[in-house]
User: Fold this.
Amino acid sequence: MYRTHHCGELRKEHAGRKVKLAGWVDSRRDHGGLVFIDLRDREGVTQVVFDPSSSPQAAELSHELRSEFVVQVEGEVSPRPEGTANAQLPTGAIEVRAANILVLNRSGALPYPLDDTSVNEDLRLEYRFLDIRRRLMQSNLHQRHRVVKVIRDDLDEKGFWEIETPILSKSTPEGARDYLVPSRVHPGLFYALPQAPQQYKQLLMVAGIERYFQIARCFRDEDLRADRQPEFTQVDLEMSFPSQEEIFALVEGMMRRIWKEVLGMTLPEEFPQMGYRQAMDRFGSDKPDTRYGMELGDFTEVFRSSSFKIFAGAVQAGGVVKAINVKKFADVTTGQIEQLTEMAKSFGAKGLAWIKVEGGEWKSPIVKFFSDCERQSLSKNLNVEEGDLILFAAGEWRASCEILGRLRMHLAELLTSQGKLSIDPKAWNFLWVKDFPLFMKDPETGRLAAMHHPFTRPHPEDEQKIETDPMGVRAQAYDIVLNGVEIGGGSIRIHEAALQKKMFKALQIPDETVQEQFGHLLKAFSFGAPPHGGLAIGLDRLVMLICGASSIREVIAFPKNARAQDLMSHSPSPVESKQLRDLQIEIKKK
RNA sequence: GGAGCUGUAGCUCAAUUGGUUAGAGCACCGCCCUGUCACGGCGGGGGUUGCGGGUUCGAGCCCCGUCAGCUCCGCCA
Assistant:
């Protein structure tokens, strides 16, 4: 037996006990005579003392110890001498007086200090096995485990069955780029790794499972971000005979339980809901961060016949004029204005109109065109005060909202760093965003595309408009947003073959393609498919927020870097030419 | 594909306006140290300043190119 206790366990009441501990040398303090080491395992740290007067052999050996050696220590638990207890440490009242020590394994000099948080991330990723020894990473992975445990318990109690679906599945043209897996048995044919178990979970509903969930690994071959990895984990769930409100209540209950059991916090009984249109109008985002204000104001009517032709022109072209009030930022520099303008342009704006309110005056290149009435409307609706900076966007509705929405996010970060805006670090602002449009215009082809996915059910009131006014059709689709991060989304699905066909028609997907790609689904829908719906929660993002981390890489044991490489195992990598021959694949030389 | 930031010892950083032998703390090695807990003290080793080119009497610093990392846009729910 390697150990009788773990390193976070021993207390005063164990005094006098003979114990064995095993773990890593966290730090050593070698006094020449007395030697102290902090022995660490997953559960904590215990001080071990080597005294040459009681155990000369162990004391002699202890000089050899270095950081991260793995050792086994045998000794007696002893209360620390008067005045030497360490109140910072749960085990700080005692120490283990070593009678014997066994070095189970040595460690080379570390490539970087494990107690330093500001180390290059590529180095941390290369030595991930060391990185995960750090207390913070251990805590993050433990939190993740606890979240998943609560989710499984919660869904189990609510009658959901955990069912696995294939990883080797079928490529579909919709959505993200697929990761492909070549078939050896069928040369020239490919499996695709699932972007989500979407079709399978709908088929499970047709199959009468009624309530399904899966902690599902999903794959998307797109460029990475701080909150996007090529492989990530979804809590995927689907239920039969649901209403949208039932799904909301289910997820709210799950979140409440996670916050209770993992963070010890109580969340509200109901989460607020907001329509997509309102979210865009007020926050310029379909995942608004409602922890701070800076809401968008609408001045379309005010400037309809303004003498400022840029605004009036935008309105007459069917567009809008929107503005935000950036509080306390009238001291913005010319350089910063330029930077904001560049940013607005990169989001599709033609320029960025602004007003500084300084010394009781409105300083701006455009304000001379404004009538008193226009000024009053701005002043009143944006609550304009001394020291404010007003920013405008004019043009097409969605683009104008998005431009200001992105500036709003950027400025919130900037103002926070300047101490001009404070966001409650303990705030957990959940929000349901619902009534998304069913369709969007594909900017490349100009054709309709599914906003969520092609199986999304239209809002019952709008179903008739699919052929006549598709862009005006709302979907029974919803996202759950936490502090401005989209942590999940889903929809009520189409369960009738006829409606599904209508949908494919609106999307201009040719019949042969429909049969080829989705024939099995349509066939399933013709055999008594129940009404069904569900959603998927991005587990990595959820845990990231719970851990207060700024990247999902901090809550994934072995993540990939921004170029989709694993720096530790060096994947992706070349393969043997025999492997390629088996697959009948040839690599084109550049 | 595009933009921004970063790149100096194993790690974290410094190096005045372009100026002599590129420094410090930690880590590593050696010696000393019996109540430390980021122990302390003395000494030592360790550098192609990411790489290539240019300007200059002289480049870590300026210019051009390139590579790498991160963040964002595009892309992606």
Summary: Chain A has three domains: 12-105, 137-273+430-555, 292-417. Chain A has a mean pLDDT of 94.
